[in-house]
Amino acid sequence: MTLAGGPVIPNFGSGSSCEVTNGWFCTDWVRQHWSDTLQPALVQHIELTVIAVAAGLAIAFALALAGFRYRLLDPPIGFVSDFLYTIPSLALFQILLPVTGISVLTVEIALVSYTLLILYRNMIEGLRAVPAEIVDVARGSGFTRIQTFTRVELPLALPTILAGLRIATVSTVSIATVASFVVAKGLGAPIFTALEQDVFKTEIFAAGGMVVALALVADGLLVLLQRALTPWTRSGRPA
Amino acid sequence: MPGQAAELVFDEATKQYEGRDEAAVDHLSLTVRAGEICVLVGPSGGGKTTALRLVNRLIPLTSGDIRIDGTSILDQDVVRLRRGIGYVIQQVGLFPHMTVEANIGTVPRLYGRPRAWIRTRSAELLELVGLDSSYAKRYPAQLSGGERQRVGLARALAGNPPLMLMDEPFGAIDPIVRARLQDAFLALQKEVRKTVVFVTHDIDEAIKVGDRIAIFRRGGRLAQYDTPQAILERPADEFVAEFVGADRALKALALHTLAELDLGAPAGGPPCPRTSTVRDALALMLQMDAQKLAVTDERGVVVGSVTREQLLS
Ligand SMILES: Nc1ncnc2c1ncn2[C@@H]1O[C@H](COP(=O)(O)OP(=O)(O)OP(=O)(O)O)[C@@H](O)[C@H]1O
Ligand SMILES: [Mg+2]
User: Fold this and answer.
1) Quick check: CB of B95 below 6 Å from ligand 1?
2) What is the pTM of this model?
């Protein structure tokens, strides 16, 4: 590897002098490679994230239903999701590779397992935080068990669940970069290539910047969703 | 949806919580007549809340029976039973994620009433409990404690239930607002004539609100069940006498208003509306150091007079 300022091996494309000298950020390169490199990587990155978060949400919800309804199940579920969360992602890829091979599935399994902890915990916390007297009134007014859950407990847990969803999404956007250790997909792929090509700075900064921007945009969209779904949380004094 | 008032009968109703020596409600037998307010009072832990929640089966009976208009609560579908019983609690328990209108529409929505019908009904009920229609779109967090309690009452009335269960509905509210809510509730009851079981630990509230009062002792045993007048004049035993307080003669004065007395000819003296209780009139007299009060009507016109001797007799 060479450091900036040292004699440069012109291995960075045949374009502008910025590329030849591996300058900090070559806008020409970005313009040229937007449609063949960066944009596809961005789309893949979004796909990886959306699939992982959606699957994580579905699995965490099923687990939370079980853990909420049957308290005895909560500690084991919590333990397993804690455990999954603590395995370093690279190690998890190594464990999965012999089973699921060099595939998107390997990546998604790893990504999903990282979302589970935060999503599950927040769902359980949110559901448990619903005041007992409100559930009491719902039952006393003739809500069935299912109606109590769907019309009272779940909506009231929504702010906490959505807060968890925000954290899970932002961290998935960031962790998905590591997916390129397994398959050349997502914004990690151009970063990986650039590292191999004697640290081509422009590509690293462009792709890295897009990861950060994607995380911020995703978070912003979720904030809007949160506002739309929970109008009562912005209604003046707390209850 | 259900309609008018129902008769409620506790028949040897007993609740024994698991792992407790004493029953929480012990062979309770009493009848609440249709359209009457029955107030349950007694010491803390006396079993009042338990007795109330036995009725809508939030707590299962250990033994005995409870009947509403002759039908055992055990013979009815529990969800159906509850939709036919209004339920108000001290913490109010308004659904924080629903507007006032949606809160009031809770039970009609369970009955599958159309949206427009619910909106009209909510507006009606808001007016009935003394809130104007601008409250419909607010969330509970935007209401005062007293307003929430009114909405809680409106919600309980929305399904037009023949029976209402109210557990210390005005307990967490300051005395002035509480008095106003009590008046509003009594005025409302004149109109809707529900059968009401009302829990309180405030004997004064019981006397003011109740058609009949059931006094509980610890262990959920009934000490006396009678009209406020009878309980004040003839307490069944030491426990009841002590519970209603040494000033029960004075409390009895609060059961009558000046309008019920034979007033003297209009005369001078501090003015006092004829809707005042005898107790309040006497307090005014002592405060003003007067021998006579000028009794006024709703418009403030003097219609008669009353003397100290008359009030004390
Ligand atoms: N779920 C429960 N499990 C066990 N014991 C209970 C339970 N709920 C109430 N108790 C007990 O039953 C007795 C009656 O309680 P209850 O809540 O009916 O009293 P209360 O008259 O409403 O009291 P307060 O005026 O303080 O509200 C008390 O001794 C209480 O500790
Ligand atoms: Mg109680």
Assistant:
1) no
2) 0.85
